[in-house]
């Protein structure tokens, strides 16, 4: 049983201790100085593993026109609520930094039990899956003229990395190539949207670094009467460590002598001990979980506020200790994919598998 075999489910609130939730909230909302944050990130609000600094927006993109009624709202202060009060969620709204700005999840768990990540299709897979969407609100513009039309667009670099849904009598996908067109009635009523990520940012050399820019504009009488911009950042994958609270421990039957001694102690602490057959994963008798599997997590502020986090455990295969023919991502998905349990690969499968 290795350190990498420990995990905790962010959504299973009944399995969380209140102190652990507060501690994890501090990690997300206050930041960790050793997680690669650049100088200038600011203090409170920094995300672990995500740099602040310039957000990489296109300088030639539409610049906001000040009109308070034309308002695009995201969770800029990371409290899980969408708030139009000046100075609350508009802080960091259009210039994402480590200290302020909204985040969204990579949606790689399986809430509908189809044995595929929920982000593999363009539907919201039930009520549990809707909780994995970070919310965006086009606020109502009650005095919009009868000829008013609205447009919401996503920057071109992000379109292959995220999916956006509109909530109206259910969730429907938005065509990010053309953007979302709104009628005068839509503008007056307001629109709720949700965003999910399709994959993590894996390296700093990637062309897309996890930043999504939304531009919203309202035209009337042949002119733009107002516009607004909001920027969001994909939440990172965070590796577990030995000092973190956990509620599950995984072991191989080949390490049974050690585990049989530890299991009663762990059970007494409320920790569930799970036997995973290593040969199903690797084709060989391997007691060292860290050679072929690790666990981490990803989270964002839970929608609705209350200071809770919402996210998922992320199991990641490692490229060592396998017999030829064993496919790490396929095998791990068969065993571990489920509600609040995701699988992601952080190595190059084409070059690093033995």
Structure report:
- The protein is α+β, with helices and mostly antiparallel strands.
- Helices cover 15% and strands 25% of the residues.
- It is built from seven helices and 17 strands.
- The protein has helices at 18-30, 127-130, 184-189, 256-268, 278-282, 328-336, 349-352; strands at residues 6-7, 72-73, 102-104, 134-138, 149-154, 162-167, 171-173, 180-182, 191-197, 211-220, 223-234, 238-239, 248-251, 272-275, 293-301, 309-317, 341-343.
- The strands form four sheets. A five-stranded antiparallel sheet has the order 2-4-9-6-7. Strands 3-11-10-5-8 form a five-stranded mixed sheet.
- The longest helix is centred in the first third of the chain and has 13 residues, at 18-30.
- The radius of gyration is 22 Å and the shape is elongated.
- The two termini are 23 Å apart.
Keywords:
alpha+beta; 7 helices; 15% helix; 25% strand; elongated; disordered N terminus
